[in-house]
Each structure stands twice: as structure tokens, then as C-alpha cells.
Amino acid sequence: MMTRLRLVLTLFLAVLAVPVAAQQGGPFAPRMIVNDKAITNYELTQRLRLVRVLGQPGNAEEIALDGLIDDRLRVAEATRLGVLPEDEAILAGMEEFAARANLTAEEFTALLTARGVARETFRDFVAAGIAWREVVRARYAPRVTISEAEIDRALALSSRKGGARVLMSELILPADTPERQASSQALADRLSRTISTTGGFASAARQYSVSSSRGRGGRIDWIPLANLPPQMAAMILTLAPGEVSEPIPLGQAIALFQLRAIEETGTPAADAVSVEYARFRLPDPARAEQVGIRLDTCDDLYGAAKGLPEEMLTREVKPMADIPRDLGMELAKLDPGEMITRAWGGGAEIVMLCARTPQLEASPDRGEIRQRLLNQRLGSYADSYLAELRADAIIREP
């Protein structure tokens, strides 16, 4: 009887302890209050993991918290206007988002789950974006018109400008397990704050980097700006020579970049770059090294892959904007016919650049120009609208 009483008492005290634990900072305790809606520690942890998986440049913790605050405001406004998305629209949005990484929603969700991101976190992230798109459309789309004169001016301003190339150094840290990701993130944060010279960056790269450039102090040869993944190019342009970037997630790695120099090339700048590349996967890293010695072009890979399953060799053409950032950075360093060998599962994969094609649109389509101007106008209105909602909101710590 006494044993049973102790058990009941223990359970009772445990139940009472739950709110206390939450108030003291448990996973479901409020981290921030936006008007009357709480953002919990759990939600912040989940969004932080999502931000890192997606590779958003900048301070991940600030991006995660700001994103959740904005999402609370977006969803609240969509609720007020009665434009919350239906489940079907959210599922379609998840598929569309996953397709950017050439995955289905199910595959992308599985990848997120493996990195500790719950499916509901991904769903809520997509739902908030769709809700906000509907808010902006409902509020501004009927009032926005693009005149023929505006299209003419845009066409006149689209005359070609000279391109640029950049000289950078890289420091790549491993993030292939949760433990390594946490330690590398802390190290990257510290190095980003403390390194102020090219010599200091080179020394840190030699000590910590896992990239093949570590022996050169992380130094990379000149790269045309257009060859970089678009988000990376935009980030690099915000740096002054000698400045170090914020930590940038690159798949299963975390990177720091230091801009050493930038110069105009005098050649026309491409609107976009498409690359043709091949990936040849082998379970034996030593075998991959042997194969690589005999390769001169992408066509040589077909002979090396003879007799192996078709999925071991892939060759495709994609805009640089559609390629995962970690792979895009590797391809940006290569000339056609050059290759790298990198880890893949328990084996290795050969990545070879077959061709790179700049896309210069000599005569933009007027319909495309109209849509581009419309999206820019709506985007500007959306940013101002969200800033207004933030200014009017009561955002406080609990």
C-alpha cells in the first residue's frame, strides 16, 4: 500500500513540476511573445536547425528568431483577412520547395528528419510563406499595374555591364554529425568574430579546415562572380577586402570565406550560368582515385562506369541557381574537364565539370520584364507592409 502511495505521489509531483520546468526554460516555455502569440524554445530550436540545413547565410540564431516573429505576424494577418491556405495548397508548396533541391516533399522531409527537424516545422514554414503571399496579393495585386513605358525603361537599362571576378579564401569545417555541427558552428562563430587579417585567416585555415585548400591557407584562385551560386555571389559582394563572412552552412559542412580582392573583367556579365556536370559514385575511395587519374573529359566516365548500375553515374545540365550550394561552390572552382573527388556515404564520388554556359539574354521578353517588375513591386510593398506590422506589434520576452 505504501509503495503504491509513493508511486501516486511521485506521479503527482511530476505533473506539478511540468509547468515549473517550462517556466524555467523547458522546451515548451515561451522564448518570445508576439502580440498574444508565444514562440517556444522548441520552435526556436527547430527553426534554427532548419535555417542551418537550408544554408541561409548570416547569424543563424538571429535569422531563426526573426523568421519566427515574422511568421507569427504573417499568419495573424492572413487569419484577419481570411486567406489562410488550405492543406492542399500547403502540400503543393512543400513539393515546390523540395523540388528546388531536386527532391520530393517526402524525400526532403526525410532529410530534415535526419537532421532533427520535425515535419511540422517544415510544414509551418511553408504555410506561413504561402499565407503571406496570399495576403500581399489580396492587399496589393489589384492596385499594381505595370505600364508599357516602365517596360521600355527596364529594357533600356538592361544594356550589358562588365562582369567581375573575386579572389577568396575558404575555411571549411565538418558538420556531418550533430556533434560536429555544434562544435564547428561554435568555432566558426568565434573565428568569424576574431579574424581580422589575411594572415590570421590563412593560419586558421591551415589549423582547422578540412578542405583541400588548407595547405594553401584556404586560398582559392580567381573565380568569375557569375560562376558562383547566386546566393553566394550576393553574400560575397557585401564583403570588403579582408572581411570574413558569417558562418555559411554548406550541406554537411560549415564555411567561412574571406574576400581578398575583387576586380572588373571588362567582359559582359552573364545574367545566369548553366553548368553541365557528371557525378560518378564508387563504394571504394581508393578505386575512385584510380579512376580519376585516367579521366580527361566527361565522356571518359562512361567507359569507367561500364557494367555498373546506371544510378552510379549521372550527367545533367542545370542553372547554377538550382544546384545545392556545397556542390555549386565546388563546380565554381573547376574549368571544363577538371574534377574533384569527395566523400560520399562510405565511399567517394568523382564530380567533373563538363561545360559551363553563360546565358546572355540579348532581347528580354516583354512579358518576362512585366512579371519581373510586378514581382519587384509586390516584393517592395510586402517588405514595407511587414515592417509596418512589426512596428505596430508588441514583441517582448516573457
From TrEMBL:
Keyword vocabulary terms for this entry: Isomerase, Rotamase, Signal
Protein name as annotated: Parvulin-like PPIase
Presence of keyword RNA-binding: no
Top-rank lineage group of the source organism: Bacteria
Phylogenetic placement of the source organism: Bacteria, Pseudomonadati, Pseudomonadota, Alphaproteobacteria, Rhodobacterales
One Pfam family recorded for the sequence: Rotamase
SUPFAM superfamilies: FKBP-like (SSF54534), Triger factor/SurA peptide-binding domain-like (SSF109998)
Leader peptide range in chain numbering: 1-22
A GO MF label: peptidyl-prolyl cis-trans isomerase activity
Statement: the UniProt record of this protein carries the keyword Magnesium: no
Residue stretches making up the PpiC domain: 163-261
